[in-house]
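Troubleshooting entry. Yesterday's outputs looked truncated, so today I'm pasting the complete records for two proteins to confirm everything comes through intact. If either block looks cut off, that's the bug. Protein one:
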Amino acid sequence: MKRTLILCAAVLALCNAVVRAQSTSTTNTNMQTVYEFVKNCGTYYLATVEQTATGVQQPRVRPFGTIAVFENKLYIQTGKKKNVSKQMLINPHVEICAYNEKDHKWIRIEAEAIEDDRYEAKAYMLEQYPELKSMYDANDSNTQVLYLKNVTATLFSFGGEPIIIKF
């Protein structure tokens, strides 16, 4: 009986490990799909919300171009001096939209933008976009990188069914 329980526990532990590995693999594949789509578009549009002096929740949208995968997370970059940075710190819920003209497909991404103030994350992003090194430095107080958490990405095409990706 004791051997059977030990064997069952070992089999259960192995099954749980396989499920976790498959889940991690699926998450990485999903993230890579989203990353490649956005990266191939070149420019994407990031939407935040700003509360105006009159109390109105005003959407703000601007073009962005930085996106990278670092430590199994999808990252974007901006400057802390910009209004977009202040808006994301107050309300981390963002949306990203990108359009691929060649394929006539687009993506809409809902996520939370979480600041990562580590030198390694900033340095990695700047290595991916060396043209930003004239404006930003991983050691300065302005460079900001954020990873996207609780991501729901929806891929659209004219005439096709939407594809929903979560990670």
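Protein two, checking that the full record survives here as well:
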Amino acid sequence: MIRTTEIFTRGDKKWDDKVRDFMVRDVITIEEDATMYEAVSKMLGHGIHGLIVTDNGKLKGIVASYDILLAMERGKSARNIKVRDVMTTDIVTIGPDDTVLTAVTKMLENDIRRLPVVEDGKLVGIITTTDLIRAFAEK
């Protein structure tokens, strides 16, 4: 069976496109002291499955719909639990000048679906598996 990264390295097509060419610049964020209920509402309102968690604009973590489902399965109320209590804090990031192949590799190696894009210590975008599928389709 072919490895996913091999799709991006086979044939005569070059996969040196930059993350900045496919990332979303208007990142939907949520503060770490928001409730899970607020996070779910925001995700549903924007049609997304994860949010970048910030504290006064500083990157603190990521909360995905799966994180919230796990908390609720454990009997926690979405209205009483803070995002900071369920978010992932071990954040894998990428730079805007890294290649799409690097983004794919990081996602596969870390079993993640979204990468905050950071430049000079500042959040400048996000790239998700959906964005990478778009990049592949455009090739």
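Both blocks look complete. Sanity check on protein two: The longest helix spans residues 36-46.
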